[in-house]
Amino acid sequence: MTHQVSTVITGIGELATNDPARTEQGGLLGLVSDAAVVLEGSRVAWVGASADAPAADVQVDAGGRAVVPGFVDSHSHLVFAGDRSAEFEARMTGQPYTAGGIRTTVARTRAATDEQLTAHVARLVAEMRAQGTTTVEIKSGYGLSVHDEARSLAVARQFTDETTFLGAHVVPAGTAPEEYVDLVTGPMLAAAAPHARWIDVFCEDGAFDVDQARAILAAGSDSGLRGRLHANQLTYGGGVRLACELGLVAVDHCTFLSDDDVAALASSGTIATLLPGVEFSTRQPYPDARRLLDAGVRVALASDCNPGSCFTSSMALCIALAVREMRMSPAEALHAATAGGAAALDRDDVGVLAPGTSADLVLLDAPSYVHLAYRPGVPLVAGVWQAGRPALAG
Ligand code: NIG
Ligand code: FE
Predict the structure, then answer these.
(1) pLDDT at 164 exceeding the cut of 60
(2) 233 assigned binding-site residue
(3) What is the mean pLDDT of residues 229-250?
(4) How is the cofactor bound (predicted)?
(5) How far is CA 6 from CA 62, 133, 386, in A?
């Protein structure tokens, strides 16, 4: 057996583990002070007091700085071409956000080569990693033809196992809605399924209604894809309740929620993934995170990085917005951006630092995770390890 390289990070002033075994003493984040972590191969091998740390091949001294689990960004749309900054500018001078802008990106994406799309995703994934994101979900949805959806997913698959078929993003220009749903649930799904783990539908006025979403998710499930949903982003509607009824692992946006929606989320256990960068970038009201948390709903935070409604790749910005604008505590926000995102992808190997989990860590240039919200806009990431390997200098 080949020797696996081990690394010990000592002198961690404050370590957020998210380890449920440590929450009694360490609160929601399972905090350990004066901590050390040992990484062996791609996994965490040991977590404990710095004074008790075993030796390893490589030693890194954190010098009292904080370490948190790598961010798990469970919602992004990175496979696209073109620029929509003019649409953003128009929005900032009074135009509303509508789903229709998606079609602009579809035209540009179809015209791009596989190499151009791959290079663009690589750039955005690197941008995310440099900001502490170590797991990312990537959706298709700017191809909207059999060929362009399948190749969008093949491009995404080079970067993550968490790929999502979003052929049902909008109905492309020149196609009748019923005809398009038949295409999505038929030949497009067949071409996309080998490259995808998940299937998603934009369930919203101007996109797909609840009945169409139900049919598309059922077809996806028959092809072995698990469902997720964009719902209640721009208006009230039945999307969130559909997600809960179907027992989906997560439903994303959740901006416009009735009391029934909140009750359905609480009783189903479906995770509400909040995407505050979208409200920031569209000047919409933020989702009411406090109402959800107080009702016992599980919450995740993700970037929704996409060229239209929100072009940020920064999970730290999402944490800062969640704290400042959505009344989440700094601990709730970090938990939602790490363990919450992992749960929204039905993963128990990421988002938590405990023996056996993936060695995905972020060293912050700060004494506490609180600085993620306390110092908004400041680049605090001093080091990133992904699957045990340094992805950015510590
Ligand atoms: O999650 N809501 C649907 N899709 C994206 C926006 C896509 C776009 O405007 O290009 C979102 O907000
Ligand atoms: Fe989205």
Answers:
(1) yes
(2) yes
(3) 98
(4) Binds 1 zinc or iron ion per subunit.
(5) 16, 22, 13
